[in-house]
């Protein structure tokens, strides 16, 4: 056996990092290089190169590797609007990653998630930071900086997820996110680029979906944008099993070697495929080399990226790997601080909060005595529930507020054996089960006797053995399906396992098991033992204050692989809130969730409402800190709360500009606006002043605390452009300042930003421009609560007009189309998917007259395109272009026609009555 070499140049700290990296890459054989392209990088003992694994989950704490401090979900950390606090949490998580190396923790961490939260129905909404791309970039950079550290060597290597256009779980591996140039450059990229430009993140993970018809793992933007932004070598790691999708689910390539070669050429450096079994991946890459689809230079480039990160982690230095610590008193204190500062006070009528002179509190609700963790949580060393946190201060009476039932089939009832075996039908009253409604028809049944949930055993029988939903395939949720026969309001029903769609039946020995067909299912009648909402209301009436804690279960509705269908609270929770409020007017509603809810009734009838994301192990104490006024509620929403899902575009419509998505473009009235959050004192704002000096804008505004308690205010600065030839944001966040004011104190908030931040993407010249246009600064407490405005005069330029040749993808408006690839490698086109589809191009300069129109087009059948001026339905036809059938989707050909004589600057529409035709470029000649 060869002896490891420790005096190789890459171990020599007197050499530059570049020299050490190049020496190591050069020393590797071809086969050794291939071994470094899988998630589980192979060791090279002869060079003293250890094995290395990418991918330790660290979204809001160390996940999946045993006991670790659990901080609030990322959405909750974002609600603090506190980059310094977020950075400190990231640093604590890095400590715990380093301390857990003996458990298998690797130092390449897969966090933060920087997809801007375009749609609150996204199943992974809890993982992101904000619907605003600037705020997302700011806070994610802070978290990544905490993970990476400030030293010359990385403590951990943060990875941004998931590039690009990823906000749906529904068919996530096969849907395509349409990102027109303005949405790409003004909304998506600004969330990713700050952490890369500042060197806080050193790796990126592409997303499962396609973008403009091309798999995100093959995006030309990886090299063209991401690597250009990063100051050092950037590592690109695939999402789990995503490389196989390229030739399987997505059918973008015919086989593995072709797909993997394209991925490597596009910029992917590490294949997360087949867990710790790299053989198939490496064979695909070997075959790609044999076929000439890859060169050794392609492999060398990817290896350089992979080893660069390991070099910057100090792996090859003589100094020992830095130490860390798990579950320290400091981390526990930070968990409490971050949870308290993440709480958002949505409503506080009659100043019910903070609670004063309260001796007895009724703590009620399905989330009142539990702290729920999500898929990317660690195992908390302890948890403090809402009930526990409040009980440390005052007398507490408690009720979960859920119904208890018995299930029976005619004369037999469902009973649970003492030894936790399968449920069965037997004589007598049967056992009682608590029914927890998580919305969307999803229920869990929990044994009254053992406190465990109904679950599926390996043999298909059903037993109460699960602590709750918590596995990747959630098999603990069921729905009641009414049997199509005459029955009472309590039955008969079929009980259906949601994950598989199988029915609950009864075997010959009486045990309950899952069956495939409804004909074999057992009809059940429901005997309601007690009404949770009624009992909770009676208890609430005996207390000074009722605190009702409701929300989502992070492992049920709205999670990875599952989007929400609507924004409603579960029906049972809505009923509970109404009943408790009717019993005790002094009701505080606490919503604990990873996404906004449409709590429209509560917003009008419940006097005080607090929201937080799932707050981690110290949630209950943090909640009590705010309820009793020890801590000012300082959280602010980073997402719009809508009144219903009817206010939202289609989940798969990523064009927020065209569809009016997020606070930037939404013209309706939100339930709670972006940036909303109340305090226990009301500030007074003075008049803002705006100064423009060179390329910077400075906004100052005096703020006074006229109350009798300290105030912490988040002063938010927005701008609005009041005229443009294209649709621009109604307002856009440019910065914020935190002020802590003692009673009677006045201080000045100051925010400055670059004039360049006011730019929009010009699709004519393909560059950002600051338009010569009127603007104003808006200062306030939220995007809707504006306390002052001032004019903003900055130098700008007129937008260019279109002439000559331009890209069809740079349209201003479209109907019935989808973006698609021009070639497998790069370029976008626009394909008609509906009859009567059209594309609009604003301000096309026809000069003194055009004589011809030419398009680069493709069609899956002969098609006709019409170039129409001014209006797609009634305007004059400039030219008629006949597109022949192409051999394949990438067979674009130039098609030309004579044009009607027209002059001046006009709007031009390309109208296609034949679905399947695509256009990549437009040219006017004359």
From TrEMBL:
User: Does the keyword section mention Signal?
Assistant: yes
* Gene Ontology terms, MF aspect: hydrolase activity
Fibronectin type III-like domain spans which residues?
A: 713-783
Q: Which CDD domains match?
A: beta-trefoil_FSCN_BglX-like, CBM6_xylanase-like
Signal peptide range equals: none
Q: Which SMART domains match?
A: Fn3_like
SUPFAM superfamilies named among the record's database cross-references:
(Trans)glycosidases, Beta-D-glucan exohydrolase, C-terminal domain, Galactose-binding domain-like
Q: Entry's Pfam families?
A: Fn3-like, Glyco_hydro_3, Glyco_hydro_3_C
> Which keywords accompany this UniProt record?
Hydrolase, Signal
Q: Family, per the entry?
A: Belongs to the glycosyl hydrolase 3 family.
Protein's name in the database: Glycoside hydrolase family 3 C-terminal domain-containing protein
* Species, as recorded: Nocardiopsis lambiniae
